[in-house]
Every structure is written in C-alpha cells, then in structure tokens.
Amino acid sequence: MNSTTVVKDPVCGMDVEAATAAGRTEHKGHTYYFCGSMCKEKFDLSPEQYLGKSVGTAKSDHGCCS
Ligand SMILES: [Zn+2]
User: Fold this and answer.
1) Which of 2, 19, 53, 56 makes the best surface tag, with the fewest CB within 10 Å?
2) Ligand 1: centre distance to CA 11 (Å)
3) Among 4, 25, 26, which Cα is nearest to 15's?
4) 26-57, pLDDT tens digit by residue?
5) What's the Rg (C-alpha) of the chain?
C-alpha cells in the first residue's frame, strides 16, 4: 500500500503524514495529527484556539465595516 495521507498540524502548520505522525488526538469526531507531542499537548489544552485560526469563518479582526 502506498497511500500517504498528508495532513496539516493545526498548531504549527507543518505538513505531517498521518501514518507516521508523532501525535494524534480526536476532537469533536475529527482526528488531528501533530508533528510532535509538544504540539499535541498545546492542542489538547485549547483546541478552539488552533481550529478557529485557519478556518476563516465568521471571524473579523477589525471592525471598520458592518
Ligand atoms: Zn507541530
């Protein structure tokens, strides 16, 4: 089998292979992979902080309009 799934470490933004990821955790039914245990620990402490960042939905940093 040569199916390599590359996912993004939500903490540091690095690309990691799911099969060889140093850490993984499940959050709300989704599995996240990490480059190392440090990133995993950070994510476990405050997953929302890292999930809200990359997905640009309903978040406005500046209130100049609307
Ligand atoms: Zn990382």
Assistant:
1) 2
2) 5
3) 4
4) 999 999 999 999 999 999 999 999 997 554 44
5) 14
Phi and psi, residue 56, nearest 5°: -90, 60
Q: CA dist 17 to 5, 55, 59, 62, Å?
A: 6, 21, 29, 35
Distance 60 CA to ligand 1 centre (A): 26
How remote is the CA of residue 6 from the centroid of ligand 1, in Å? 13
Q: Enter the pTM of the model.
A: 0.72
Q: SS3 string of 5-65?
A: CEEECCCCCCEEEHHHCCEEEEECCEEEEECCHHHHHHHHHCHHHHHHHHCCCCCCCCCCC
Mean pLDDT of 12-22: 96
